[in-house]
Amino acid sequence: GILFNKGAGQHILKNPLVVNSIIEKAALRRTDVILEVGPGTGNLTVKMLEKVKKVIACEIDPRLVGELQKRVQGTCLANKLEIKVGDILKTDLPFFDACVANLPYQISSPFVFKLLLHRPFFRCAILMFQREFALRLVAKPGTKLYCRLSINTQLLARVDHLMKVGKNNFRPPPKVESSVVRIEPKNPPPPINFQEWDGLVRIAFVRKNKTLSAAFKSSAVEQLLDHNYRIHCSLHN
User: Fold this and answer.
1) DSSP string, 149-179
2) CA 181 to CA 161: how far, in whole Å?
């Protein structure tokens, strides 16, 4: 009886075969604490609760929180579920071993980097994304989809495309096709300042058809570099 908010990315995964396949690929362990973002009505959540020590489900919509609570109320699974209500991008991530989620697609990029910069390290993340976003994550140098997202994700993690998921597996169906991706953070991470690195990549990819020489000669970039260099010199006397 719930009206789902498509604008907020509420597309509930309804096909149990896809749910089981995601859980199988996550290789969950009995001792695992799992982070789930956007649990919806709990189709994935309940299946995971049967296999792990604890699921921390983060949901922004109080109506769906109520549905999820009703679903496990009075069962042996209730004490294994912790629900956090709020915006995942504005809250600190808890400790977890793995992240398994059918994400609201509009938070895909900021959530991936929040995840990859999170400490302590987690084992892996199995995440549902819009197909094109997923293909950008795994794109190789020289291909059309290779971009800043590809470089930064692959710098910090190993990324694998696991499976395609058609739009009819959701209720209501989204307008786009979906894919499931596995992200495994590199531990230890590369010894770089990620903020500085991302600034460099941002300039390099600001116009894909420009040469690097032209990108770095633009007046805006020259002013930015000069400003940053002066700050660097003053900080280091």
Assistant:
1) HHHHHHHHEEEEEEEEE-GGGEESPPSS-EE
2) 5
Q: Give the tens place of pLDDT for each residue, 80-133.
A: 999 999 999 999 999 999 999 999 999 999 999 999 999 999 999 999 999 999
Q: Which two tokens stand for residue 200?
A: 């460099």
Helix axes 108-116, 148-156, angle to 10 degrees: 30
Residue 67 is assigned to a ligand binding site: no
Instruction: Give the type of residue at 228.
Output: N
Mean pLDDT of 181-185: 98
Please list, residue by residue across 182-197, b when 16 or more beta carbons sit within 10 angstroms of its beta carbon and e when fewer do. Answer: bbebeeeeeeeeeeee
- Tell me whether residue 59 is annotated as binding: yes
**Known binder of ligand: residue 87?**
yes
- 126 neighbors 162 (Cβ within 8 angstroms): yes
Q: Is 13 annotated as a binding residue?
A: yes
